[in-house]
Amino acid sequence: MRRAGSIAAAAAVGSAWAAAPAEAHGLVGKQDLPIPTWLFVWAACVVLVASFVALASLWPTPRLQEPRERTVLRLPALLEPLCGALGVAAFAFVVYAGFAGAQDARTNILPTVVYVVFWVGTPIASLLLGDVFRVFNPWRATGRAVGWLAKRLGGDALPDPLAYPARLGYWPAALGILAFVWIELAWAEQDVPSALAGAALLYAALQLVGMSLFGVAAWSDRGDAFGVYFGLFARLSPIHWTGGELRLRRPLSGAPGTPVLPGLVALLCFMIGTTSFDGLTLGPSWSSAAPWLQDRFRELGFDAGRANELVFTVGLLAGVGVIFGFYRLGARGMRSVGGDRSTEQLARLFAHGLIPIALAYVIAHYFGLLVSQGQAIGYLVSDPLGRGWDVFGTAGASIDYGWISASAIWYVQVLALVVGHVAGLALAHDRALVAYDSPRAATQSQYWMLAVMVGFTSLALWLLSAGA
Amino acid sequence: MSRTQRFSLLGVAAIVLIVAFLALRPKDSGEPAASSNTTPSPARTAPPATASTAADPPTPRPSPGPLLVAGEVERLRVTKGERVRFRVRSKDADELHVHGYEITRELPAGQTVPVSFKARIDGVFEIELEDAGEQIASLRVDP
């Protein structure tokens, strides 16, 4: 709604709006400065040099395909139900706050929890600490609790769940992520706490249906959008929680184990494409194109708010389409090297190489939001409904926007992109060594992957610079 | 390729990149020497929003800065440490809100209210009429 006003204003004055920000949403108090030209140039050089060094010097035999893990800790059996209960309680509370609290994005805790802590914080936590979301996942915990109860009460009378259809793969998760990003970026009610709470409940209901049809494990590993999304990032982590154990492994070595299922490529392209689009909306190219597109929709008879939603929907899908098309092109190129795999099979086989790139996009675009708006949790927990409470005595606190300088944020952004790029190359290289019979074919196939990844990383840099 | 060759390649690459970093980085950190040409100049720049750099000839009365009104999004740009100055006028009674700086001013209907503060946080901030929910300016503070 806020944004609808901005675009209408921009349409009215045309060029005066040249680079004014179109807010991601009402939460954003401060936007990152674009990275300066010299840093852009240098970072691009780093990406190129790193790529060629990687091509010349990466290991000649596969190293990441067979994960080697060692157990460092056994976890008490009670930990998982306990964390699950915490997750359910937290979910129930923030949804309640969304319905019952002040209908304002800044004073109600729900929008900050959803868009900052959950959406940006969890991917970074997954990288550092492993798949922490899995144990707190409120939907999975509910499903498991219900399953456990039903078993105790009904014994063996329960019918077995249906077999999860192989063709479905990751598609439900991919579409779930797309729906979430649409809510965040395009929906007119993106900031309205009660609307967000309603969407969260709807999502939870869909998960329960999915789990009851196909079983808790099958659905939460493939169909639950957030479980899958955070789980992919956790595959990069050196920490692996499994079967009541805490295990350590080489960073990245969890990624090659990603199941090669239908929808995996779409899911990763949704992740990269939507983040790219969000970055693009901050720049002058979008702010000159958006009002024009909005006018076209208004000519078709939509009101301003609806036209605005449609403009963002079109942009979102275009962003996803460009990323998807570019990746497919790379996979097609790899096919020319030889072997009997189709473009589609190759695209899936190498898709896990995009996980670090997707995470780098998330960090590059949202790190500034996390360190500024993330502080808001400090006072929101004291007054979650925006009713003037002060439960923990922190309600009077405010966000210190100055504690991290613009240049520190630039370095974090560039570092994330460069490291993500190299990690992606390493994963693709390692997969090529097992996918092709001769080292020569493996290397040749990686020229194509290299081009794809240099493309993605350059796009990210360009989106961060003033050029976009 | 042998282990030694691999490490020397990595070493050479690292040295090249560090030298490039030192060469490219603006000489005085804190001085936005390079950042001033990062953005293409906008089609219509705001009148200077500041009047207190040391290099300026001494001016007894600083310019009051541009007038911000609803329906237009003015672009203000200063360097950290300088003063931001502008005036605001709103048809209806409203409240001015400078995001990030969390500065608010009551705006009586139809009156011109001067605003001035020191830019101590870098970043891009929205300046809006809070009640109307309308952005009237974008404040960019370079480091």
Descriptive notes:
The complex is a heterodimer of chains A (468) and B (143). Chain A has 468 residues and is mainly alpha-helical. Chain A has one domain (2-464). Chain A has helices at residues 2-13, 37-57, 79-100, 109-129, 132-136, 138-154, 171-185, 193-214, 216-222, 225-234, 264-280, 284-299, 304-335, 343-349, 354-373, 376-380, 406-435, 439-464, and strands spanning 30-31, 69-74, 239-242, 245-249. In chain A, strand 3 (239-242) and strand 4 (245-249) form a beta hairpin. Chain A is globular. With 143 residues, chain B is α/β, with parallel strands linked by helices. Chain B has 2 domains: 1-31; 38-142, Cupredoxins -  blue copper proteins (Immunoglobulin-like, Sandwich). Chain B has one helix at residues 3-24; strands at residues 67-68, 74-79, 83-89, 94-98, 103-107, 112-118, 123-129, 134-142. In chain B, the strands form 2 sheets. A 5-stranded mixed β-sheet of chain B has the order 2-8-7-4-5, with no helix packed on it. In chain B, a hairpin with a 4-residue loop joins strand 7 and strand 8. The radius of gyration of chain B is 22 Å and the shape is elongated. At the A-B interface, helix 1, strand 1 and helix 2 of A face helix 1, strand 7 and strand 8 of B.
Distance between the termini of chain B: 45 Å
Number of helices of chain B: 1
Radius of gyration of chain B: 22 Å
Any idea how many domains of chain B? Answer: 2
Mean pLDDT of chain B: 78
Shape of chain A: globular
Number of helices of chain A: 18
Helical content of chain A stands at 55-70%
Strand content of chain B: 25-35%
**Largest sheet data of chain A:** 3 strands, antiparallel
- Quaternary status: heterodimer
- The CATH homologous superfamily of the largest domain in chain B: Cupredoxins -  blue copper proteins
* SSE-based structural type of chain B: alpha/beta
How does CATH name the architecture of the largest domain in chain B?
Sandwich
Strand tally of chain B, please?
8
pLDDT under 50 segments of chain B (min length 5)? Answer: 29-55
What order do the SSEs of chain A take from the amino end to the carboxyl end, as H and E? HEHEHHHHHHHHEEHHHHHHHH
Sheet with the most strands: spatial strand order of chain B: 2-8-7-4-5
Radius of gyration of chain A: 23 Å
